[in-house]
Amino acid sequence: MFYDTLIAPFAEFDFMRRALAGVIILSLSAAPIGIFLMLRRMSLAGDVMAHAILPGAALGFLVAGLDLFAMTVGGIVAGIAVAVLAGLVARFTELKEDAALAAFYLVSLALGVTLISLKGSNVDLFRVLFGSVLALDNPTLIVIASFTTFSLFALAFIWRPLVLECVDPGFLRSVSGAGTAVHLLFLTLVVLNLVAAFHALGTLLAVGMMMLPAASARFWTQDVTRMAAISILIGMVSGVGGLLVSYHANLPTGPAVILAAGSIYALSVVLGPVGGLRKRLSPGRHLEA
Amino acid sequence: MTAALAFQNLTLGYDRHPAVHHLSGEISEGALLAIVGPNGAGKSTLLKGIVGLLSPLGGKISRNGFAAKDIAYLPQIAEIDRSFPISVYDLVAMGLWKRAGLLGGIGASDRGKISAAIEAVGLRGFEARAIGTLSGGQMQRALFARLLLQDAQLILLDEPFASLDAKTISDLLELVERWHGEKRTVIAVLHDFDLVKRHFPEALLLAREPVAWGKTTDTLSAENLLKARRMSEAFDDAAGICEDAA
Questions:
Q1: Would B246 be classed as within a structural domain?
Q2: Is residue B73 in a domain?
Q3: Which label site among A131, A163, B60, B115 has the fewest CB atoms less than 10 Å from its CB?
Q4: What strands, in cross-sheet order, belong to the sheet with B58-62?
């Protein structure tokens, strides 16, 4: 029973093992990066960048078809361009950043869908929008794993200034000129991880592996390092859980993974010891002074 | 006595509007200087200029012998994100940045220093608490512990005692006086004239332009304070270009 439910799907099917490797590798770096997006109040920016990848990947698709290299490069270029552009529009015009981001997000999505439809079928469109976790081939897994490896090293390297810039940007500027470089590297990491997630989950769901585990982890600890570790764990559990549910119930895989992450988020909101609902609704009697 | 800092006809500001206008003078090494003046007088701006966060619009700041790493700067507490999930211990440990940097290890002797700094500001037992759970006074104590670790020769404090109770202020003042005793140069932006008179031998009264600078008792005369208030007019959008000799 245990074996049939939890192990057999992966033991029997190659595509399930690849999908498993994909979601686990993705969680390793996407989830902690999501933590910093959340703590810097950039959750919406992450969502916008995920959409911004689409027109770039679509251009790659127009040039080379469903080619891993072309779509990856296109996605990275478009993602970084939009990150920089949205920042510039917010900084140099009267438009507030959230409105600038919303504008970019809508235009990117419409443009991407249009470009894909020029040459592709509805199947191709479905694939770029919602991904194809079960169709991850070896080259794609290698791309995802390389991005994750790079991200983990880079994150370790900029961890201290990244934390400092979130808590006390004035202090960081007074001790180091690295703030801007760190911010740019961080945005690059966001784009790299979104492109990796895009291959598995598509443009609409990619950001889910980043933000849902992060938002859930916020409810379990008050320490950023532990929060990152918890988010990785939540990402992995959602990945495995989603794959199994989709296998047994015959549901679409990408959405099942994100729904699993969403369920953990809902549980965290209700049960989480740090600011969760249960704590708020029945805080218990007050303590001695 | 050598000058720690010298300003030559210094103008600092934002978007070409001067917030500090034509300031000249010297701060000697080991000075304990209070900067006072009305809101919008350019006090915080001057500190930012000294740290190097803001480049002068005109004139010049000479940091004779002070490298950037010899300066410790305490921003106004409002600039800190207190909802960030980080412990008191880790916040204080940031003071070691200049030595540890990106990847340097924090060894046993460093951990000893961090604990000693936390102890010195009276926060023992709070090491593992998240900064979001601290009161205003406790937070300011933690930031002073971080300053202790920075071990800098020039210490800049921007409104360090704003909305703190008397006990906290007197504890933190003890640290300031200890730094003064160790011949460090301390510059603090303050609003409480009584406190300045009691603890700070020198004061600079700023109202964008320097009104008075020297011994505290002379600087804070009724006449000077009145003059400062008159000079602190509003930010003038239609201001012309300053023709005063640069």
A1: no
A2: no
A3: B60
A4: B17-28, B3-14, B58-62
CATH code where residue B193 lies: 3.40.50.300
Domain carrying residue A195: 2-270
Residue A286 lies in a domain: no
Distances (CA, A) of A48 to A81, A103, A131, A271: 12, 9, 17, 30
Claim to verify: residue B91 and residue B145 sit in the same structural domain: yes
- B78 touching chain A per CB within 8 A: no
- A123 falls within a domain: yes
Residue B176 in any domain: the answer is yes
pLDDT in tens, B124-135: 999 999 999 999
Q: How many structural domains compose chain A?
A: 1
Q: Do B81 and A160 touch (CB under 8 A)?
A: no
pTM (2 d.p.)? 0.86
Contact B38, B229 (CB under 8 A): yes
Cα dihedral A141, A144, A148, A154, rounded to 10, equals 140
Interface touch A221/B85, C-beta < 8 Å: yes
pLDDT band of residue B145 (cuts 50, 70, 90) is very high
ipTM surpasses cut 0.90:
no
Q: Is residue B71 part of a domain?
A: no
Contact at CB, B87 and A223, closer than 8 angstroms: yes
Closest residue in A to B80 (Cα) is A168
Look at residue A280 and tell me if it is in a domain: no
Whole-Å CA distances, B206 to A156, B28, B192: 44, 18, 14
Pairwise CB contact (< 8 Å): B79 & A169: yes
- pLDDT value at A225 more than 60: yes
Question: What is the domain extent for residue B135?
Answer: 79-152
The CA–CA distances, whole Å, from B225 to B199, B201, B217 equal: 19, 17, 12
- Which CATH number goes with the domain that contains A111? 1.10.3470.10
φ, ψ dihedrals at B20, nearest 5°: -125, 125
Contact A174 B51 (CB under 8 A): yes
Domain count of the fold of chain B: 2
Convert the pLDDT of each residue in A106-147 to its tens digit: 888 999 999 999 888 888 888 888 888 888 999 999 999 999
Contact predicate B5/B64, CB 8 Å: yes
Let me know whether B61 and B118 are in one domain: no
b/e code B162-197 from CB counts within 10 Å (16+ = b) = eebeeebbebbbebbeebbeeebbbbbbbeeeebbe
Tell whether B120 lies on the interface with A, counting CB pairs under 8 A. Answer: no
Final residue of a structural domain among B152, B178, B203: B152
Distance CA B52, CA A139 (A): 48
Give the position of tokens 């729904």. A259
One domain, residues B169 and B62: yes
Q: Rounded to a whole number, what is the distance in Å from the CA of B101 to chain A's nearest CA? A: 8
Nearest C-alpha in A relative to B76: A170
- Tell me the per-residue pLDDT of A71-110, one tens digit each, with 9 for 90 and over: 999 999 999 888 888 777 766 776 677 777 788 888 889 9
